[in-house]
Amino acid sequence: MSFDALEPLTVDPVSRTYAALAMDPRVDKVDLGIGVYRDEAGGSPLMAAVREAQLRLATAAGPKTYLRPSGNIAYCRATEALVLGADHPVLTENRIVTVQTPGAGGGLRAVGEMVRVLAPKARVWASDPTWGPQLMGFAAAGCEIVRYPYFDRATNTLTFDAMLAALKGAREGDFVLLHGCCHNTTGEDLTPAQWDQLAVVLRDGGLTPIVDLVYQGLSEGLVEDVYGTRLLAATCPEMILITSASKAFGIYRDRTGTVSMIGREAGEVLANVERWLTRVVISLWFQPPDGGAAIVAEVLGDPVLTQAWRDELEAMRTRIVDLRRALHAELGFDFLLRQKGMFSLLPLDEAAVGRLAAEDGIYVMPDGRINVASLNQAILPRVATAIRRQLG
Ligand SMILES: Cc1ncc(COP(=O)(O)O)c(C=O)c1O
Question: pTM to 2 decimals?
């Protein structure tokens, strides 16, 4: 055996885009690719409540010994309540176990492993299109992935009927991976009425939802954005929830997320689920990092910091809505107004994406995904003009 035995792997188009962006010497180059929130000055702000929590934790100078494989309990409890609402039956009936993970990225990998040990023959249904890395953890765990149609690029619309029809053809015991809100890559979300229909199809079909919730607070509001998640948790007997604090707290590199498994009832079955989940996370990373979890627990454990965080998150959300309006005024695509959160897919093919980078120094994802939150009023007219030129 030698390292040269590895099957050759070509550089994927997303990595190629990032490499070209890094090499581009133009000072006015624009990164509309990476999925991080930016402010009007183009920076990625440290939220005031996060800063204050960080200072408090540094001053307290607590120990840095191991916590536990399942992570920071206060953070896990606070996340459950933030997502489901403290009075949700799942919480009042103690039907949930939660572990902390290194971001939702780690969570997706752990859930892939849980699916494989739970039901090796079950399939995982995922939206087409989706954010590529969402599926990598499931594939690495050996899960069979099948796709349900989600978005029609010719008409820029949600293909809800086709999605339901596909899921009605799923086998009992299959899993269905859903974006909680702000679908990555399309920004196209289900309406409450569509969530209602979907919940019935999942329950009646014996399908287990896996909700990947990474953008709570960036679509319509902290409560509005979890309509579907709360509904599924109340409708389906079992569910898996993956969350992230990366976006809503702006702590991407601190790697902070959770996996929750929601069961039919409190008791031995769920206790066993918890033991399995713990075994899985030990095998994957032994212990999660605590920096980000401690910050979120501090913010959500203090009503003053919580309010400051909510206010700042709401300002981020409304900035994205304003930018969507401004881009709509320039490009005229109605879907920009309907879609939620940072992402939309522009009708640009790979050649147009390449020309946009080469001619104008404007970098979008190879599939045409843009991060609206990377825009600001100063660069928006120039970016819109360049995009219009590529649209023809
Ligand atoms: C849908 C989705 N899931 C998971 C993740 C990973 O997030 P994290 O930073 O928590 O690993 C992202 C990040 O962009 C995402 O968009």
Answer: 0.97
